[in-house]
Amino acid sequence: MSKIIDIGKKSIDDYVFDIIVSFQEGIDNVIIKGYGEYISKAVDVYNELYSRLGESIELINIEIGSEKKSGRLKSYIAISIKRKY
Amino acid sequence: MSKIIDIGKKSIDDYVFDIIVSFQEGIDNVIIKGYGEYISKAVDVYNELYSRLGESIELINIEIGSEKKSGRLKSYIAISIKRKY
To answer: What ipTM describes this predicted complex?
Structure first.
């Protein structure tokens, strides 16, 4: 099971907490997705998560590109991570 | 030959222009590097470059992490691209 965490206005710690709870609920793969100005925060969330969970998560893939969102092209990042058992 | 383009306050187009000039000067690999708030802009620069040069560039690697900069840990992205001939 996988889940997309869409990064927005909540705090970095809130997203980290959401991801840890998702793992506890049995989600194996999480995609941290940030658009536009939230790309930087998506990387912050990954780094904070890594500093808390370390080797028990694995970075699977990083994708960057642009997508239409609300009618205009926006840059995005999608950071795929996996929980290791 | 490779070159690091450190993303800061200049416009997206300025960085795209710097990279195109670097390729014309014989640089093969460029690393677009952005710290903190400039991570989003680094992705914008890549997307803009891709929309201009398309298939003549290749995305080699994307690295994310955190590094000490000015005495404190900062998130970064390093987007490695290669010119194709």
So the answer is: 0.90
**Residue of chain A whose alpha carbon sits nearest to that of B36:** A40
Q: Which of B15, A20, A25 is nearest to B6 (CA)?
A: B15
| Beta-carbon separation of B75 and A43 below 8 A | yes
Please state whether the predicted TM-score (pTM) of the whole model is above 0.80. Answer: yes
What would the 3-class secondary structure string for B18-77 be? HHHHHHHCCCCEEEEEEECCHHHHHHHHHHHHHHHHHHHEEEEEEEEEEEEECCEEEEEE
CA end-to-end span of chain B: 15
The reported pLDDT for the residue numbered A55 is 87
CA distance A52 to chain B (A): 14
Contact assignment for B43 to A76 by CB distance below 8 Å: yes
Distance CA A44, CA A40 (A): 6
* Confidence band for B27, pLDDT divided at 50, 70 and 90: very high
Q: Do B40 and A40 touch (CB under 8 A)?
A: yes
Rounded to 5 degrees, what are φ and ψ at A2? Answer: -130, 165
